[in-house]
Design goal:
Layout: E1 8-12, H1 13-26, E2 30-35, H2 42-51, E3 54-57, H3 60-68, E4 76-78, H4 85-94, E5 98-101, H5 104-113, E6 118-122, E7 130-132, H6 142-154, E8 158-163, E9 168-170, H7 174-192, E10 199-201, H8 216-230, E11 238-241, H9 245-248, E12 252-264, H10 266-269, E13 273-278, E14 287-289, E15 298-304, E16 313-321, E17 328-332, E18 352-356, H11 359-371, H12 375-379
Length: 408
């Protein structure tokens, strides 16, 4: 019987390998520094480390996680413009030099706690068309940027580049063009003051699934010409980005079990409604997979999490077939800001994650690790890789699958 099982994730690490190949093809000049905050699962971080990605860390704990896997400090950027002094000191003692800032107060802290830091000035962007806006909290205007560069010069600090973030879930690729243009202005300001700036960080905002209006390649087709215009390949500028949901959103699927059910009568609500209670609190947007039978009737349904909080409503008045206790619902695209943001409120434990990977994806990852991106690897149709198989399941693996366990 499976109707008494807890919620669980299935995470296809092979999907992350495919995304890495896709990134390399679409943005060949941009090195990805994975945003650990998006999903800090150790297996995810280790997979990306093997593939050669860098890492965007926002805290001491994230830096420790990445370094415990063996990632050198040169592949880490401490991309949090507002840091505790104690954590700046930890970065210094750990050899992490690249870090962002956007205020004079931050400059003063770094001057005291990490004077040899390689600072990256974060500028503000127009993120009005992003799902999650960030410029309301982070980023310096162009006018403020000049003042900050002058102050950094007085403090004898090294400014090595510029960063920006157009917001998570960007829906307008032209936002990148304006931000890249603004970054060029700040580079020119820095040159006037004598700074040797060589790093451009174009942040995140890249979609992680296909159920979005703006596709990944639609964004990159706008970014690449802008980079070539403002930071041509012969300019000597290193370009990085901070993708998060791009890498992990589609890799995770969540299975939840219905643990209780209540029927709300028509006279109470104006329509028949079924309320179901699942064994997991879902805190991020996703696709709901329910496969009703052809003759099933649909009802207005609400799905609630297991906690005692009245705000714990996952789905409100969504037409679905009537579910029974013990039924399962699958939520796709659950890899971004779910595992990392999960709560143990009321003592409910986080779901177990079952990692899977196909043999071809495993072999491709090892090839990249050992030899880098070869021409034949770039030309491989990663979408044709077979469905992955779980090593935890105990089933016999088909000829195309293998146990691809990653020590975590």
């Amino acid at each position: 019987m499976i109707d008494d099982k807890d919620a669980f994730y299935v995470a296809d690490l092979g999907d992350i390998v495919k995304k890495h190949m896709r990134w390399h093809k679409a943005l060949p000049r941009v090195t990805p520094f994975y945003a650990v905050k998006c999903n800090d699962s150790r297996a995810v971080v280790k997979t990306l480390a093997v593939l050669g990605a860098g890492f965007d860390c926002a805290s001491k704990t994230e830096i420790q996680l990445v370094q415990s896997i063996g990632v050198p400090p040169e592949r880490i950027i401490y991309a949090n413009p507002c840091k505790q002094v104690s954590q700046i000191k930890h970065a210094a003692s750990s050899g992490v030099q690249m870090m962002t800032f956007d205020s004079e107060v931050e400059l003063m802290k770094v001057a005291r706690a990490h004077p040899k830091a390689k600072l990256v000035l974060r500028i503000t962007t127009d993120d009005s068309k992003a799902v999650c806006r960030l410029s309301v909290k982070f980023g310096a205007t162009l006018k403020t940027s000049r003042l900050l560069l002058e102050r950094a010069k007085e403090l004898d600090l090294a400014i090595v580049g510029v960063s920006f973030h157009v917001g998570s879930g960007c829906t307008d690729p032209e936002t990148f063009v304006q931000a890249i243009s603004d970054a060029r202005c700040v580079f020119d300001m820095g040159a006037e003051l004598g700074f040797n700036m060589y790093l451009l960080d174009i942040g995140g905002g890249f979609p992680g699934s296909e159920d979005v209006k703006l596709k990944f390649e639609e964004i990159t087709n706008v970014i690449n010409p802008a980079l070539d215009k403002y930071f041509p390949s012969d300019s000597g500028i290193n370009i990085i980005a901070e993708p998060g949901r791009y890498y992990v959103a589609s890799a995770f699927t969540l299975a939840v079990n219905i643990i209780a059910k209540k029927i709300v009568l028509k006279e109470q609500t104006g329509s028949d409604e079924v309320e179901c209670y699942s064994d997991y609190d879902i805190t991020s947007g996703s696709s709901v997979l329910i496969r009703p039978k052809p003759d099933d009737s649909c009802y207005s349904c609400s799905i609630w999490g297991p906690t005692c909080d009245g705000l714990d409503r996952i789905v409100e008045r969504f037409n679905m077939p009537e579910l029974q206790v013990g039924d399962w619902i699958l939520f796709e695209n659950m890899g971004a800001y779910t595992v990392a943001a999960a709560s143990t409120f009321n003592g409910f434990q986080r779901p177990t994650i079952h990692y899977v990977m196909s043999r071809p994806a495993w072999q491709l990852m090892q090839q990249i690790k050992e030899q880098g991106f070869l021409a034949e690897a770039e030309e491989q149709d990663v979408s044709s890789l077979p469905v992955s198989c779980a090593w935890e399941s105990g089933i016999e693996y088909p000829a195309t699958c293998a146990s691809a366990s990653i020590n975590v």
